[in-house]
Specification:
Elements: H1 12-111, E1 116-125, E2 132-140, H2 143-155, E3 163-169, E4 178-184, H3 189-199
Antiparallel strand pairs: 1-2, 2-4, 3-4
């Protein structure tokens, strides 16, 4: 058998430089591959970050939508509660006003003498809410009855300070009847000042 040695056709003076160039190329290749891997990692991380941000944005949008629904429901319940409060307040005012008016009607029926017919009773709350404007229209069988009715009204707490607008005979009626009107205007600030000036 013939023994064969390995053949190296690179000259001896260039073998070292060739080996160095080969190692250099391997380093460059490795560096290039590392850069590619690094770029891929950066791209993947950016995509993951963008995807995560998109998910966060979607989640925030869902949370905002849920919050808006909650706020809407709270506003709706508040409005319903406010309507209920307004209704209760209006009901209380109505009951109070009705009771107040009924007090006036009851008082009038108690102090009205026979021979007097009340055709209308107008009651108006004054602007200052401390006094009542009123107007009583009616008919009587005689002026004496009208005077008696007026005297009774004057002694009443509710109907005091009334003035006689007129008391006159109704023409063309037999037997004779008389019509009258009593009224009271609420005291205004101007009237109060005038009264003070008169007292001084």
């Amino acid at each position: 058998m013939v023994k064969m040695d390995k053949l190296n056709f690179i000259p001896k003076d260039k073998r070292k430089s060739a080996s160095f160039n080969f190692s250099k190329e391997l380093c460059l290749l490795g560096l290039f591959l590392f850069e590619i891997v690094l770029v891929l990692v950066i791209v993947i991380l950016q995509q993951y970050t963008m995807k995560q941000r998109q998910q966060d944005i979607v989640a925030m949008g869902d949370e905002r939508e849920q919050l808006e629904k909650v706020v809407f429901e709270i506003g709706k319940q508040y409005n319903q509660g406010q309507v209920f409060v307004n209704e209760q307040t209006a009901l209380k005012e109505f009951v109070y006003t009705r009771n107040k008016w009924s007090t006036y009607f009851k008082e009038l029926s108690l102090i009205k003498p026979s021979g007097i017919w009340v055709n209308s009773l107008v009651l108006r709350q004054a602007d200052n809410e401390e006094s009542m404007e009123m107007e009583i229209d009616g008919e009587s069988s005689s002026q004496v009855k009208t005077s008696e009715f007026y005297q009774r009204l004057s002694k009443s707490i509710l109907y005091s300070k009334l003035i006689i607008n007129f008391s006159e005979t109704i023409e063309g009626v037999t037997p004779e009847l008389y019509r009258f009107r009593f009224s009271k205007v609420a005291a205004t600030a101007k009237n109060m000042e005038e009264k003070k000036d008169k007292k001084i």
